[in-house]
Structures are given as C-alpha cells and as structure tokens.
Amino acid sequence: LDLDSNGLSSVGGMVLADALAAGHAPLLKHLDLMCNNIGSTGACALAAALDSCPLLTYIDLHGNDIRDEGCSALGAAFSGGACAMLVHLNLSRNGIEVGCAALSSLFCGSYDGNNGSGRVLAHLDLSENAIEC
Question: One cellular component GO annotation, for this chain's record (predicted)?
C-alpha cells in the first residue's frame, strides 16, 4: 500500500489504523506512508493496529513528525511481537530524540543471526532526527 505524500494528517493516519485494526488488510506486506504528517497521534494509532498485519515486511514513515511519542508506541508494538517479519523500517525526518531507545527490541536478544527474537530487520533509517547519545 503506497500512500506516499497524500496529505493524510493525523486524522487520515487514525482512519487507516482503524481499517488495519479491523482486519481489512491481513496480507499487507508493504506500507509506505512517507510525507503524510500523521504526527504522533497517527503513529500511535498505527502502532496499535500493527498486530493485525502480521506479514508486514516494509514500513516507511519518513517525514511524518511522529516524534518520541510515536516512536515509543511503535517500539512497544514491536516489543510485543508486532511485525515479526519486518525487514525495512524508515523513521527518518520525524523529530525523534530519546524515543529511539524504544526500538531496542528490534535488536536485543541472544545472537543467532536474527537477534534471538525471530526478527530479520535489515534496514533501519533514523537519519535527519535529533538523536543524541
């Protein structure tokens, strides 16, 4: 599903999340919401719906201003087992600072070639954020 640059806003993000949560796209593998300004509200709604899309391998949320709150919600969803098949995650240009720590579940675990969690994440883009160590 490619909705790149459609001006969805937080309302559109929530509407899409409701549709996903209702089970309308259980076979969805690719979700591109780049440059839609869904904000933290839309990202939180989307995070809550990710369990309904177990086959997702690609999520692009570049340029959506999800901030720490949205990133933390996504991290909690991934930590809870959502999107176990995720290979590509783009969270660039989202105003994320300390919220990126919530993504640690994508990498933590014993080393077995896929970090012990069954995940196979190959691409994580956090560029153009305000992350500080």
Answer: nucleus
